[in-house]
Amino acid sequence: MSGNKEITEYLKPNTLKTLLPLVLDLSSLTLMWNFEAVLLGHYSANLLAGVGISSQVIVGSFAIFLTFIMGTTIICSRLLGSGDRQQADHIVGQALIATFLLSLFFAVALYIMAPLLFTRIFGLTPEIARHAIAYARLGAFFAPIIIMNVVIIGIIRGSGDTVISMTLSLITNGLNAVLALGFISGRLGLPQLGANGAALASGLAHTCGFTLSMIALISKRTRLNLHKKDLVKIEFKTIKRLYKVGAPNTLEIIIWTLGQLILASFAARISAAALAIHQIMIRLIQLVAMIYQGFAFGNMSMVGHAIGSNNLIALKHIKLMTRSVISFFTLIFSALLLVFAPKIIRIFTPEPFLIEWGVPMIRFLALIQIPRAYDILIASDLRIRGDLGLIVRTTFINLFVFEILLASISTLILGFGLMGLWAIIGLDESLKIMVYIHRLRKGLVKEV
Question: What is the pTM of this model?
Fold first, then answer.
């Protein structure tokens, strides 16, 4: 088979036609989060801080379920590349059984632990803690449905069906935004419920999204399909395989999330205003990072298919394309954050002292998001190649060195404040790039 024919055969979905829907897919989630933050911030700074940190805990805890998303993506992308669709479908069914059972346990734990977590561990003020607990406890009620929807859409996305995953995400997050407008602000004829309103909007939207995502899997409109025979019983051999491949990814995200929560606790100790600005910056970097995650998921799907079919020409094509696209987007986002920082901060809060403090922080974010982009993309190359241990080790070491040691020195001892805290984040991301690039140049591909 000639080189051109190979690229045509294996990269039919592996072009901008695949990548761009992923941008809309994942960015829709953070756009919704930012819209929600705007509604909360205009309600009160305490509500924004409480729901923000509670949301961080919940979304961070969802990393547990990345075991099944990442495990299924890595294994199934290679299986689809080699033509073994039946085994790929079987793995999907097993992943969903395990996800549902684990989500029930998570929901109960979240409901019980919420007061201890936000009052004792995070040491939030009573008003902020009240909002955080309310959001977490109502969110726990909807947690199994939300988690199942997130996992199913993630599996569809990872298989390369990016238009379908984009459609499901746009419907879920669009409905979430509309309901948040009603339940948080008391518009559209709906009651004003504050933190409970934010949780209720999310739960109802994901219930709708879960119904549609299940229909997509069962109706065989996707590359990966759900069959009854794969849901009859748990096969521990398959679950063990998913765990072996997906667990390192989950452990990495858990460690990274723990680091982010530690940083948030440092911000809270600076002041309530610092925590509010920190939450705004978290929302913004999540927005751009989700877009980069879209490219990373597309990269994983494409590289996995190419590895499964042993197509070296495709690998070179994918590398050139993804690096070029992500470089373009980092420059665009940096320019937007630098130029429009005053307007961006005013979207989130009308309070003058927060605006004055937030403008230089957002401009600083324009620089920090650049190494973050390349970390996300290059790490996706290592993941799909099965080189998972390095990512976990690097994240674990950086947790202690940067998020705990250097961050505590910067804020608690030297008093560098919020700017010092985010400088630590930027340094952390920059070091990861050097480690990941050095490893990737070795060209390792491990069995999964």
Answer: 0.70
Please give the Cα distance from 436 to 142 (Å, whole number). 37
Cα–Cα distance measured from residue 409 to residue 322, given in angstroms and rounded to the nearest whole number: 38
Cβ pair 80, 159 in contact under 8 A: yes
Torsion of CA 372, 376, 379, 384, to 10 degrees: 180
Got the DSSP string for 386-433? T-HHHHHHHHHHHIIIIIIIIHHIIIIIS--HHHHHHHHHHHHHHHHH
Contact indicator for 288, 26 with CB cutoff of 8 Å: no
Question: Structural domain boundaries of the chain?
Answer: 3-440
Tokens of 197: 């309103």
User: Which run of H or E residues covers position 174?
Assistant: helix 162-185
Q: What is the rounded distance in angstroms from the CA atom of residue 43 to the CA atom of residue 46?
A: 9
Most confident segment among 115-124, 235-244, 278-287, 326-335: 326-335
Among residues 95, 45, 94, 43, the alpha carbon closest in space to that of 68 is found at: 95
158 HSE (CA, 13 A, CB side): 25
Long-range contacts of 265-270 (CB under 8 A, 24+ apart): 265/122, 265/123, 266/407, 266/408, 266/411, 266/412, 266/421, 267/418, 267/421, 268/49, 268/53, 268/122, 268/123, 268/124, 269/123, 269/411, 269/412, 270/411, 270/417, 270/418, 270/421
For residue 446, the model assigns a pLDDT of: 63
Q: Can you tell me the distance from the alpha carbon of 160 to that of 139, in angstroms, rounded to the nearest whole number?
A: 30
Torsions phi, psi for 282 (to 5 deg): -60, -45
How many Å apart are CA 90 and CA 136, to the nearest integer? Answer: 34
The pLDDT value recorded for residue 12 is 47
Task: Report the alpha-carbon distance of residue 120 to residue 98 in Å, rounded.
Answer: 32
Determine the distance from the C-alpha atom of residue 214 to the mean position of all C-alpha atoms in its chain, rounded to a whole number.
21
Instruction: List CB contacts of 247: < 8 A, sequence separation 6 or more.
Output: 67, 71
| Distance, CA of 79 to CA of 330 (rounded, Å) | 33
- At residue 190, φ and ψ (nearest 5 deg) are -105, 155
Residue among 268, 280, 266, 422 at smallest CA distance from 355: 280
